[in-house]
Design a protein that fits this description.
The chain has 280 residues and is of the alpha/beta class. It has ten helices and eleven strands. It folds into two domains: 2-209, Rossmann fold, CATH 3.40.50.300; 213-279, no CATH class. Strand 5, helix 6 (155-170) and strand 6 (174-178) form a beta-alpha-beta unit. It is a peripheral membrane protein.
């Protein structure tokens, strides 16, 4: 994707499989939104080939669009509609192409059963976000795009949403989400894509990426009533040596491997350092 003489995306290449949950991560300005909008058919690419559900998004017709679900970062319309009538209305658009969710089942699935007769404008921020998700999945999409889906969710709502994503994935819905919540990405995604400088710089599961970067692990234990903490690149060898030396004196052992956040920061820093070296 080129704006003037500036290439904001260059050689972005990945494949999403049926029923897979992918998280697209990257710094602000990396090109995540542009990538998603090209895949959704909302923005025309400058060059390259794109296939989404077997079609070029730039040429997608109504039947193709009926197979997509989109949850934007925020909505500002529909304030005067009641939740149930709004979802029933959206559901009617899909019947020509596919079998949508039953409206009451959908309302229950997103946790809005007690608010089904409220106007959208009277919902709390978290409840409105649940409605956004319901609108995005009302047509039982084959492919679902989620942009910061749990912004404004409390912990309980977030957990329920994660269960819903896993349910959709089990039903063979492919999910592509963008989020700044790396803990959420680690819990939800089968595969992580990291976009930086307009290109994919990493592609793999959270564990795969962690092993690739060999991020430090944190080992905690107690001995003789004292608490110890040690960071190491070789946690298995360190724990082995620890037990060889102290045996049963070791208690309350914990090994915390590098998190996705640690891996993400390491990968982005490595990319930025390479860019600086090439610039010199």
């Amino acid at each position: 994707m080129r704006y003037g003489t500036n290439d904001v995306l260059k050689g972005v290449d990945f494949t999403a499989r049926r029923g897979e949950v992918l998280a697209l991560l990257g710094p602000n300005g990396a090109g995540k939104t542009t990538t998603i909008e090209i895949l959704e058919g909302f923005r025309m690419r400058s060059a390259g080939e794109v296939s989404v559900l077997g079609s070029d998004p730039a040429l997608g017709d109504e039947a193709w669009r009926a197979r997509l679900g989109v949850v934007l970062q925020s909505w500002r319309d529909h304030a005067k509609w009641e939740v149930r009538e709004l979802l029933a209305h959206f559901s009617s658009y899909y019947r020509e192409y596919r079998e949508p969710w039953d409206t009451d089942e959908l309302i229950a699935a997103v946790g809005l059963a007690e608010h089904s007769h409220k106007r959208a404008g009277r919902l709390s921020g978290g409840q409105r976000r649940r409605l956004d998700v319901a609108i995005g999945i009302v047509g039982r999409p084959d492919l679902l795009f989620l942009d910061e889906p749990t912004a404004g969710f409390d912990p309980e709502a977030r957990r329920e949403f994660h269960d819903l994503v896993h349910r959709l994935s089990d039903e063979n819905t492919t999910v592509l989400l963008t989020t700044h919540d790396l803990d959420e990405a680690e819990k939800l995604a089968d595969r992580i894509l990291i976009l930086a400088g307009g290109s994919i710089i990493a592609d793999g599961s959270a564990d795969d990426l962690s092993r690739e970067m060999s991020t430090e692990a944190e080992v905690k234990w107690t001995r003789g009533g004292r608490r110890f903490v040690h960071t190491t690149m070789q946690s298995t060898r360190f724990v082995h040596d620890l037990f060889l030396e102290y045996g049963d004196e070791i208690a309350d052992l914990e090994v915390r491997l590098g998190s996705l956040e640690d891996t993400y920061m390491a990968l982005v820093r490595r990319f930025e350092q390479r860019g600086l070296q090439e610039a010199r």
